[in-house]
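Ticket #4471: complex job returned nothing on first submit. Input attached below:
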Amino acid sequence: MKLPIGWLKELLDYECPPRELADKLTMAGLEVEEIMQLEDETVFDVKVTPNRGDWLSVLGVAREAAPLVDGTLKMPDPIIEGASPAAGESISIDIEDPDLCCRYVGAVVRGVQVKPSPGWMQSRLTAAGMRPINNIVDATNYVMLELGQPLHAFDLSLLHNSHIIVRRARAGEKIISLDGSPRDLTEDMLVIADSDRPVAIAGVMGGLDSEINEQTKDVVIEAANFAGTSIRRTSKKLGLVTEASYRFERGVDPSIAKKAALRAAELICEIAGGEAAQGTVDAYPCVKEPRQIKARPERANAVLGIELTPQSMAQHLNALQIETSLEDGLLVSMVPTCRPDVVSEIDLIEEIGRASGYENLPLTLPKARTKGMDSKEGLFRDRIRRILMSCGAQETLTHSLVDSNLSELCGCDESMIRLRNTLTEEIDSLRVRLVPNLLGVIERNQTHEINDVCIFEVGKVYFRTPEGVIDEKLAIAGAMSGNLWRNSWNLSSEALDADFFLCKGTIENLLDALGIKSVQFAPTEDTFLHPTRCAKILVDGVEIGVLGEVAPGMLEAFDVKGRSQVYELDFNALMGCVPDTLTYHHVPKYPALRMHMAVVVSDEVKYEQLQQVIAQSGEGFIEKTELLDVYRGEQVGTGRTSLTISMVFRSRERTLTDEEVNSVLDNVKKALSRNLAAGFR
Amino acid sequence: MSEQDNLEELGKSALARVAQAATSAQLDEIDTEYLGRKGELTLQLRKIGSLPADQRKDFGQAVNDIKVRITDAIEARKKTISGGEIDAKLAAEAVDITMPGRFYRIGRPHVLVQTLAKIKDIFIRLGYEIVESPEVESYHYNFEALNYPLDHPAIDEQMSFYINDERLLRTHTTAYQHRQMEKRKPPIMVCTMGKCYRVDAVDATHNHTFHQVDCFCVDRGITMADLKGTLYQFAVEMFGADTNIRFRPDFFPFVEPGAEVAVTCSICAGKGCNVCKGSGWLELAGAGMIHPNVLRGAGIDPEEYTGFAFGFGIDRMPMVQHGIDDMRLFMDNDLRFLRQL
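Support reply: We reran it on our side without changes. The output follows.
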């Protein structure tokens, strides 16, 4: 809200430079965000918190500032001579729905001349951020800014039967609002009607056909108090937020209505000629009285952690115009109707804290002794992150809000959660998987000519279970593309580019570092992955994730150049596989012997099968096998593959002799040729 | 010439030859010639039997002395010679050490995760238990349970992404508080962190997705001074010993009294600069004493227990720390950005 300081000075007698006043208001909770210097006026831009609707006026700020600058409030006191016939003889007011309108004050000014308002008023409205319209409307806006009471002016001649009825709209009723838009009204909306039709949407906007116009002679001024929640709902429904609705939503003081109506009448007489009718019509079916609240001074000290005397607490509250006395050791406060936010003891305690100054609170620490610790997910996440980073992956964070088209493309539409409302279509759903996001990161980096990318993310994925339950869980995913070595001069680039096996190696490395044994990679199907270059990852037979090369179709859809490898693991499933403790096995005492063999088998035979046969026929002496070389070509014939395998022979009981090793190797070779039709080179 | 003199001569000539030897092979020859099974000294030693008994001991001693001297000399000479041979070999193996090193680049932690990790460490030291919290929340936990009045403008400040009438993406990490209060007994000191979402147009300083940390403490006798002290302690550990904090009243429905917390601007040390818009302060957190309605709603008696809570966004911290001028960089994952921090 924009607050011209000259205006404040009219309502508050004080001496304080603007900068200092701004600091004091800010420290009292009314933040001055900016001090603007206009031609002949200093204007504060203040940020009013939603609980303090009473600050949305010059008067409200003056009231807050008074104790801060030791100032004296100068409340406007409109004087109306009042001509007959009295207001009550010109108009009649009926409140049919007092639950939504506790007070409606009408004042009448006759014989006005509608024209632009005088310069002083126009410049003040402009400084406060409002657009001048004509003298009548400007006067109502002026009073709203000054006293916080939204007003509306009707052309009396356009109100049928001079009757004002405050009621809920009837089904099917319509109105054209002041901005020229036709509006459909619903039965939960409050309207101001005359005897025939709605003439205003209560507290939001007036109607076009009862508005002040150049021919207007007689004016009805409305100063009413509408229920905030109703105004808020209407305003939301119509998509129409006005200065009036903004104030009603935040609460308007019902006790100011009459003064505001008279103040507007006074101003209109001054700037538009005319004569105010005697008195007002004041329908006030539900009178709001100051609220009595009691507070325990010792409770206030206990909450704030300070030691104030009950007397000084009472003084502070009185300075804030919350009339307070001490009775039987209790603070008994009468909270004025302009402070609907103060409803209970804790609210008074806040006022005491505010008035005594937050800057005076001491610095202490809680005496509670609790054990600080990370969550088990947090600890595991950090462990995973450290391993993957040392495997060469850069950590990334990507958006959870994603384009539903991409999830559909990846075959995730079944479980995808869509948002009901959004900013743009590119973020209309929650991610079901991490890998599409990571592929997106590769694409974006490729557009910057960064083609060698190795990244990972540990983050949430969100899904709807087959039963329809909305849920979320942590996932671990990585992606790699290009040559991940730096300065790989003299090394063949073909062998260095990230391929399926580098990706698989990362997973093997990760699982090994976590102490997870019995890992298996098995064929799988995944829309996102290359059909013959992907695998599911099983630990003890339970699937914990997938890995593989990204399907060519996906690369195309994401506009990614070259091949990319990805993996995605279920965080909790992986965490469940990690052994609690690792047991030490004696390091072998006896020396090892290393032998090589070149096995030639049909292309159909899997390396895993070779390993199994070797393990079974190795009589427990083969500690480990390693694949050294794979060859397909003329020398072995079509449909055949030659694999050079290195084997480490060792016994835990004794040193093996060459003869023993040769005999084991012989058995292995026999078994391979018997079971897998293997030949040897 | 006595046997002794003879021995001396033999030693001298052997040592002279060792000194002149140019290769390890020559030294090996000398070794064989003098010390081998049929070597000169070995032959001398065999003479010992033909000497008178009283001379045997001295003679044997003398032969051994010379043997040791020659052996040492050969060893020493060998080292010198082979050093030279190795030097020559190594010289031929020289590399250009200014050529670039070859390595498999290790990854770095994302800058926001670094910030979160630092914050997490501080709160663990201060006695907080870090807990996980859902991002897809219910309207109840995100607003209602936190004392947001129905149809109140306070909700407008947190425009939400809704999934349906009941479920939304949390607009603040504070949403986890009530869940924790319901299942714990005081003393409670817990902290959570993670993504939050608000319908907010994306620009250099705003994003629809941002990261928050939220802490709260409930026990007997918890005061607002404890809150202020806790945030001071945090600020000092996070931003340095010279950091100060500023508390001023603010409004959040779930706390009363409520406060906005600012810390000394680390760019200008509080003197006022562009980053802090001349105020010398940077907004840090929203904070306050947990509203009695919130405690009561979670089954905690507000007469017996009090508590404080605070929450803050963390995205601006690394922006100030590293001079990052665009919040979007965090989630864009441009490696040219990530690899710098």
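Chain B touches chain A through 93 residues (CB under 8 Å). Closing as resolved unless it happens again.
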